[in-house]
Specification:
With 457 residues, the chain is α/β, with parallel strands linked by helices. The chain is built from 15 helices and 23 strands. It folds into 3 domains: 89 residues, Rossmann fold, CATH 3.40.50.720; 207 residues, UDP-N-acetylmuramoyl-L-alanine:D-glutamate ligase; 138 residues, Mur ligase, C-terminal domain (Protein-Tyrosine Phosphatase, Chain A), CATH 3.90.190.
Amino acid sequence: MHIHILGICGTFMGGLAILARQLGHTVTGSDANVYPPMSTQLEEQGITLMEGYDPSHLQPEPDLVVVGNAMSRGNPAVEYMLDRGLRYTSGPQWLNEHVLQGRWVLACSGTHGKTTTSSMLAWLLEDAGYEPGFLIGGVPGDFGISARIGGSDFFVIEADEYDSAFFDKRSKFVHYRPRTLIINNLEFDHADIFPDLAAIQRQFHHVIRTVPATGRLLAPVAVPAIDEVLAMGCWSECERFSAAGEPAQWQAKSLSADGSEFEVLFEGQSMGTVQWAHTGEHNINNALAAVAAARHVGVTPQTAVASLSRFQGVKRRMELLADIAGIRVYDDFAHHPTAIETTLAGVRGRVDAAGVGRVIALIEPRSNTMRMGVYRDRLAASCADADAVIWYQPPGLDWSLDSVIENSPVPARLSSNLDQLVAELVAELRAGDNLVIMSNGGFGGVHQKVVKALEQE
């Protein structure tokens, strides 16, 4: 079958393309932004990529068009597809029908940590010999690829609450029919499609309705937004976890200030100690969810805890890009004030434990919710654990960051010129500093520019 994918270079659709190719289909795709690393990953899989959305990309006509959720009416390829009556579907629907049907699906959902938690969970199953399939919105260091069919009935998926397509406004995860469901946290996000938190909660309850009675739901305690969803009805087993000391079946006892060492407890009994290169309470929380989910399919907590100590992390999630003259440069996919806050808290713990160095944050507010200014009043406080922060005002941002600078609890400044920003930043950095670059986009290649400039220094 020839499948053509519209919006193929997004992390989800790119992963779907890889799965389709591994199933033996001929796969082509169009996107407005065809560039590495996704383009390279896809081309290595034998997938033909086309720049833009010219109707000619659909000639000769494919057997099926899979439409990404970034596509909308008025797009030339979409209009041609509809006019010609081509067979089409959404990415999540295709996944349900051709990959997930009949498999044990382990879905990782929540406002934050989906990519990291699903990467952890896939690794725990892999290290235990389960050979899981997976589709993750990032590239796990333990696999080097964002998706694979796998060699067993187990499939780990990053379960996103964003909508499925222009013709299907249900959240993607409603299509996945998980047997094991993690809801890691729940906050208002995606203001471009959801009017309020209640609308998001309804979608989360829709997916809870699909979990069988023999399935299992895993969620943190003391999260009112999740408790409210569960109060709407839950028909499955439910286990709760806590990395902050609240009573729960799964708990973590931190043994270091930065979260790099902690003990996992199940029903009050120690399951072992994790020692790893990652930091922050949020990652401990992610780890508890992954260990609990792995136990549902038969991986013992002791085995999972040992595997976590070998977890390599995910690209763009506090990924260390370079360590030059004692200056560490990190890339982090921060998209929300909570993500910024928890990430910087983890780095602060590590710096304080070392007793030397500074935490410098360079942030581009790029997500749709950020661009709409929904969280403008929370951004300043989210950087309290940094020693200094530089906010980048990207083109097209609909509001001014001046108020964020004025209300910042730490020294802060604003920049709209990337080249000038890099020059000033490199001149200020010194040995021991930790520069955390935060954006859910390419950020104009600033990561590479900073690294190159430091190397020249």
